[in-house]
Design a protein that fits this description.
By secondary structure, the protein is mainly alpha-helical. The chain has two domains: 130 residues, no CATH class; 132 residues, AhpD-like, CATH 1.20.1290.10. Helices cover 61% and strands 4% of the residues.
């Protein structure tokens, strides 16, 4: 069984819904080559250059490897109005596979294929996935926040980097702590936080390189439910890849940071 189905069933069902929405929004002749290109970029299929060169597949590969270098222009010229749904779909393909690989390694299982469901409405289902993950509250707020900030800095999301959650601050987190994230291995961060950041790094770079040593560290440090929440948090946070790709990640503030928090229902409130 997929550990998400056991420990985060609402988020698991929301992920299945998103995958159905992507299949409905993007024609199979566009989506399936992109799916294979994502698998190639993440080392799950033998790599081969597209022949002839294809701007949509080039965008796919760049999105997976380093979204900060994405140029939507050539692919947009090919896809037209479909560029929006396609990039949203890339996030689902990319992070869905990354989390499958990571959870398979962490739990020592083959992640089963998710049963298809009927398509819904993308915007509604996208928000529901984000909220379903945000409602998971096994982890402490500080661990959740440092994982979020690591992903924000890796993907260079200007908005995400400018945010600080009130709940983590109430636990005692502060800028001195957050400043240690970039060079965490040489910092005096606690081992629990370092393990969480190592796992985050593996998922957002190459999850197939999540080695036995790191798997052992994660399993010794976090419960099964915490592991699932961590992995889903990384996927939720990486929704910023869509905003970064479109250059829609501008911060709400021009200096300093903006306080936000997550409500019990998963909604996010800003400017606190």
């Amino acid at each position: 069984m997929d550990p998400r189905g056991e420990h985060a069933p609402e988020a698991y069902d929301a992920l299945r819904q998103l995958e159905a929405d992507v299949r409905a929004a993007v024609p199979a002749e566009i989506l399936e080559p992109a799916r294979h290109r994502v698998a190639m970029a993440l080392g799950q299929e033998p790599y081969a250059l597209p022949s002839p060169p294809d701007p949509v597949l080039s965008l796919t590969e760049q999105f997976v490897i380093d979204v900060t270098g994405v140029d939507l222009g050539p692919a947009a010229a090919t896809l037209g109005a479909r560029i929006g749904p396609f990039v949203q779909g890339l996030w689902v393909l990319d992070m869905g596979l990354r989390t499958d690989i990571a959870l398979g390694r962490l739990f020592g299982i083959e992640i089963p294929v998710r049963a298809p469901v009927a398509a819904g409405t993308w915007d509604v289902d996208f928000d529901e996935f984000l909220k379903a993950v945000a409602r998971l509250r096994v982890l402490d707020w500080t661990t959740t926040e440092i994982v979020r900030l690591r992903g924000a800095r890796f993907h260079n999301c200007r908005l995400c980097k400018s945010l600080r959650t009130v709940s983590a601050l109430k636990e005692g987190a502060d800028e001195e702590l957050f400043d240690k994230i970039d060079l965490y291995e040489s910092s005096d961060l606690g081992e629990r936080h370092k393990v969480a950041l190592r796992l985050t790094d593996a998922i957002v770079t190459q999850p197939r390189f999540l080695d036995d040593e790191l798997v052992a560290q994660v399993r010794a440090t976090f419960t099964d439910a915490e592991v699932v929440e961590l992995v889903l948090d990384v996927m939720r946070n990486a929704a910023n890849k869509v905003a970064v790709a479109f250059g829609a990640d501008e911060a709400h503030v021009t200096e300093g940071v903006e306080l936000y928090d997550v409500l019990p229902d998963g909604d996010v409130v800003y400017d606190l």
